[in-house]
Write a structure and sequence with these properties.
The complex is a heterodimer of chains A (263) and B (237). Chain A is α/β, with parallel strands linked by helices and 263 residues long. Helix content of chain A is 41%, strand content 16%. Chain A is built from 12 helices and 8 strands. In chain B, a hairpin with a 2-residue loop joins strand 15 and strand 16 (216-221). The longest helix of chain B is centred in the first third of the chain and has 14 residues, at 25-38.
Chain lengths: 263, 237
């Protein structure tokens, strides 16, 4: 086994990095892949809550880095889905407790044992972000359909470029087709052409996600909600499957068809 | 004007490049020693290229330079020289000889003729600063910045900040396939875009050029028969 290290980042906060990390990790595990997720948001850890593993943390990322325990001791194994492991962030420290070289070394150590190592990046472009991005083979850039999130995403792409990283792949989160239809929301095509990077997923706004996060049970565990399907599709694309994008453009399909007939 | 005749700068993969300006060789070497001394061990184990400003040095003079650098643990690797005489002396000492650096060749071209070609997109937070003309093939995103002492040409959508004629040249222009900058400056003048209407039904975008007329920045659609030279004469710059 030689794991692919994938970092989920965004620049702007609150666009859904942690939710995305949790859902994709669960989806990949359900595709029979062995997955480890690392919460790199030291001091503001959330991934454990979203995954519902909060009460089982004994050791954390900083304990591993500082040699107080072995990685295997710190990894929390999910009981609902096999092959899913969480390396939680420390809550009592801050981003400076870890440096990029240590993250690279940690992921290097984990690579032989997993199919995927997914790193949840903190918001921002400072040390925490650099720690998260350093070990990445691939980067998933999450944005929402609002101008400030797209601007921040653009900034991050520029930074990744200057660090010589692979071009990130884009996830557009929290799309509301009815708002796009009336022209009150950036549509996916606008965002993709503004950022000029490949798209790997479009997630519709979905009330189930909030409920799932609060309960610590990602919808990809067993749900059939629209967002769950979209996350499963991303997992499929990461595994190399060709999956069509769900049409969330909000455009009038019937009208389109009429045009096609006459056009 | 003493310390200005020596310029030390890092050069990516090639280590250091030391440019030695005009002056008597012995004096110049003394200055170099001061500079290196002031930086302590900072340049240690660097390998350097030295530009001797077209001088023709004797073997002894060149050896002095090499020994001086050695004292600071710096290896003299390459000499930039033009004269064949100088080149053969450098080779005698086992040094590489480089032709004029591209940058220096560029330096002899006046800024009005000089061009920097940039492949886009230029993203938020990225900046180009150039003493000459800047051409971008691709889009310039909001938050990106181009500062040119001459003209700026964007074969794409310009949405960032563009500053042409940054040395005060009011005859500079900015043109783009879609000219929608956050801010546009030419010379000392500043233009801000009109406030966007709440909803743009169907944006009509056409290539445009921005230039100075009177004391104002004018933005005009690009005409196929547009001739810059003619235009410059018209506005009398």
């Amino acid at each position: 086994m030689e794991a692919k290290v994938i970092t989920v980042t965004s620049g702007k906060g609150g666009v859904g990095k942690t939710t995305t990390t949790a859902h994709i990790a669960v989806a990949l595990a359900r595709h029979q892949k062995k997955v480890a997720v690392i919460d790199a948001d030291i001091g503001l850890r959330n991934l454990d809550v979203v995954l519902g593993l909060e009460n089982r943390i004994v050791y954390d990322l900083v304990d591993v880095i500082e040699g107080r325990c072995r990685i295997e001791q710190a990894l929390v194994k999910d009981k609902r889905v096999e092959r899913l492991y969480l390396l939680p962030a420390a809550q009592t420290r801050d981003k400076s407790a870890v440096n990029p070289a240590q993250m690279v070394a940690l992921c290097q150590y984990m690579r032989p044992h997993y199919d995927f190592v997914i790193v949840d990046s903190p918001a921002g472009i400072e040390q925490g972000y650099r720690n998260a991005v350093a070990p990445a083979d691939e980067i998933l850039l999450v944005t929402t359909p609002d101008v400030s999130a797209v601007r921040d995403a653009d900034r991050v792409i520029g930074l990744l470029e200057s660090e010589g990283k692979n071009t990130p792949q884009l996830i557009v989160n929290r799309i509301q087709p009815h708002m796009i239809a009336v022209g009150n929301m950036l549509n996916v095509n606008d965002i993709v052409s503004a950022l000029a990077i490949p798209l790997i997923g479009v997630i519709p706004e979905d009330d189930n996600i909030l409920v799932a996060s609060n309960r610590g049970a990602p919808t990809t565990l067993n749900g059939r909600s629209p967002a769950a399907t979209a996350y499963h599709n991303i997992a499929g694309r990461l595994l190399g499957e060709e999956i069509d994008f769900i049409d969330l453009t909000g455009s009038n399909k019937l009208l389109k068809r009429v045009f096609r007939i006459f056009g | 004007m003493l310390p200005t005749s020596i310029n030390i700068k890092g050069q990516g993969m090639h280590g250091l490049i030391i440019t030695i300006g005009p002056g008597r060789w012995e004096e110049v070497l003394a200055q170099l020693a001061d500079r290196l001394g002031a930086h302590g061990k900072f340049f240690r184990e660097a390998s350097v290229t030295v530009d001797i400003n077209g001088r023709v040095l004797s073997q002894g003079q060149l050896t002095m330079l090499r020994d001086l650098l050695n004292r600071y643990d710096i290896v003299l690797k390459k000499i930039i020289a033009e004269a064949e005489e100088m080149r053969s002396i450098a080779r005698l000492l086992g040094l590489q000889v480089a032709p004029l650096q591209q940058e220096q060749q560029q330096r002899s071209i006046p800024p009005t003729e000089r061009m920097h070609l940039q492949w886009g997109p230029l993203r938020s937070g990225q900046q180009i600063q150039y003493d000459g003309n800047v051409v971008v093939l691709g889009n310039v995103h909001p938050g990106a910045e181009i500062i040119a002492s001459q003209n700026i040409i964007v074969w794409g959508r310009l949405e960032g900040i563009a500053r042409a004629g940054s040395n005060g040249d009011m005859s500079s222009f900015v043109c783009a396939l879609a000219l929608q900058p956050l801010q546009l400056r030419i010379g000392a003048l500043l233009a801000l875009p009109f406030d966007k209407p709440d909803r743009v039904e169907k944006e009509v975008i056409s290539p445009a050029i921005a230039f100075v007329q009177g004391r104002q920045i004018i933005i005009e659609p690009w005409q196929l028969h547009y001739l810059i030279e003619e235009h410059k004469q018209q506005i009398g710059t």
